[in-house]
Amino acid sequence: MSKQEELKALHQKWFKECKCRLKESATQPVPGDGPANAKVVFIGEAPGKAEDLEGKPFVGAAGKFLNEMLESIKFKREDVYITNVVKYRPPNNRDPLPEEKEACSKWLEEEIKIINPKLIVFLGRHSLQNFFPNEKISEVHGKILKKKTKIGDTFFALYHPAAALYNGSMREVLIEDFKKIPKVLAKISSFVQ
């Protein structure tokens, strides 16, 4: 079975087994999307309205902005894997509750283990604090974070694209931080070889 088939099977398994109570109000699950051999995985918070309807992560306004930023560093969306901490849309786009994150945690863990990326990029505080509970996004954005976890050991924190859509100064910071990703990847590759 190829890694892509493994991912597809994993999502099918979790569509049935996930106990997240957001299932009750969401239109459908929103699994991660992208190649199973991606070097970079982006982890957001939870699906929004557009994602809930389409069944793919980051397809609304924040997703369009993410795509623009990917293009600015010569990446295509097809080059990266994009997922969320929670796989179902919270009502009215509220923050996911701890028990909802917990209910989706094994799903996230297993999809990232299959991909085995070189770099995991957190999009926003919920994603960051899921793995680094004591860190503040305002203090660690644009920085490499190293820590052995179940999903990897090299991370990079960014503000969430949605936050930058509503705050012009944050938008500039996010664009500048995003431009560091190729350098971070190059640095990781020089250690790995």
UniProtKB/TrEMBL annotation:
Residues 31-179 form the Uracil-DNA glycosylase-like domain. GO terms for molecular function: 4 iron, 4 sulfur cluster binding; metal ion binding; uracil DNA N-glycosylase activity. It catalyses: Hydrolyzes single-stranded DNA or mismatched double-stranded DNA and polynucleotides, releasing free uracil. InterPro entries: UDG_Type-4/5, Ura-DNA_glyco_family4, Uracil-DNA_glycosylase-like, Uracil-DNA_glycosylase-like_sf. GO terms for biological process: DNA repair. Its EC number is 3.2.2.27. It is an enzyme of class 3 (hydrolase). Keywords: 4Fe-4S, DNA damage, DNA repair, Hydrolase, Iron, Iron-sulfur, Metal-binding. The keyword DNA-binding does not apply. It holds the Pfam family UDG. SUPFAM superfamilies: Uracil-DNA glycosylase-like. The keyword Iron applies. PANTHER family: TYPE-4 URACIL-DNA GLYCOSYLASE, TYPE-5 URACIL-DNA GLYCOSYLASE. Belongs to the uracil-DNA glycosylase (UDG) superfamily. Type 4 (UDGa) family. This is Type-4 uracil-DNA glycosylase. It comes from Candidatus Nomurabacteria bacterium RIFCSPHIGHO2_02_FULL_42_24.
